[in-house]
């Protein structure tokens, strides 16, 4: 049954090729801006803005501050901002104010609509019209690649406010992460990055202050696409591990014993050895913490918000499973 589901998922994803022409056109337009980027200096990373201080963003900012970056933050949650203002980190009331105070801006937000609003909405990053202070915008949210590519094109049509070495046109990188809250806290995230390769290489020290792996995925939107593919594979593996553990328990094998078998055999995967879905089997896993502190938002038991954009493609093949995840994700978003 699992192999049939995987085949159906593959077929559904192939149907996304209908979007290919428009997406390639968008990404090729944005890639033209990379010709304006030739060299970088440390001064271009002196001030870093960060928007989104949730479970992931707050921990990423903490690591940036520890690494010595001058960080300015914003969040719609006043309590989240107060935590950092109490630490001496400057806060701003709007995304636009963050942009005006920063050379580089990083966003870490819940969904595509939030990202689009922070970039293009009232008092958003692009409120200044054609002129931007930051030369680099990095979105680490998990969103659909279409939105990443559209925003990359929009950013590439802007100009920089003031002279920044030989830079003329600002650049956007889509750089979603993997590893969840625990990795964000430990500074061991993996960044999947799409956009200008030169900007990616220049920003590597910035990424490595928050993570341990950076992978360049190609043109604009490819980082977001890689994250969706990773989440899809992860969700399928979690379904398989959950079903196998449930079957084993029904046959009289404890989840702990079966996990030891998995992790010493060919069934070993991230869902079995890092985020085991059975409470009590693995200390520190969300399942063993009753999904406290909203950690369920980053649990592999749920499809990320971005993956849910594609659930309509799967509705007739693995619809019951996917819609179940969608329901759970929507419920948890209400409390997140």
From TrEMBL:
GO terms for molecular function: 3-hydroxyisobutyrate dehydrogenase activity; NAD binding; NADP binding. InterPro entries: 3-OH-isobutyrate_DH-rel_CS (IPR002204), 6-PGluconate_DH-like_C_sf (IPR008927), 6PGD_dom2 (IPR013328), 6PGDH_NADP-bd (IPR006115), HIBADH-like_NADP-bd (IPR029154), NAD(P)-bd_dom_sf (IPR036291). GO terms for biological process: L-valine catabolic process. Pathway: Amino-acid degradation; L-valine degradation. It catalyses: 3-hydroxy-2-methylpropanoate + NAD(+) = 2-methyl-3-oxopropanoate + NADH + H(+). Residues 48-218 form the 6-phosphogluconate dehydrogenase NADP-binding domain. Pfam families: NAD_binding_11, NAD_binding_2. Keywords: Branched-chain amino acid catabolism, NAD, Oxidoreductase. Its EC number is 1.1.1.31. It is an enzyme of class 1 (oxidoreductase). Residues 221-275 form the 3-hydroxyisobutyrate dehydrogenase-like NAD-binding domain. Belongs to the HIBADH-related family. 3-hydroxyisobutyrate dehydrogenase subfamily. This is 3-hydroxyisobutyrate dehydrogenase. It comes from Quercus rubra (Northern red oak). The lineage of its organism: Eukaryota, Viridiplantae, Streptophyta, Embryophyta, Tracheophyta.
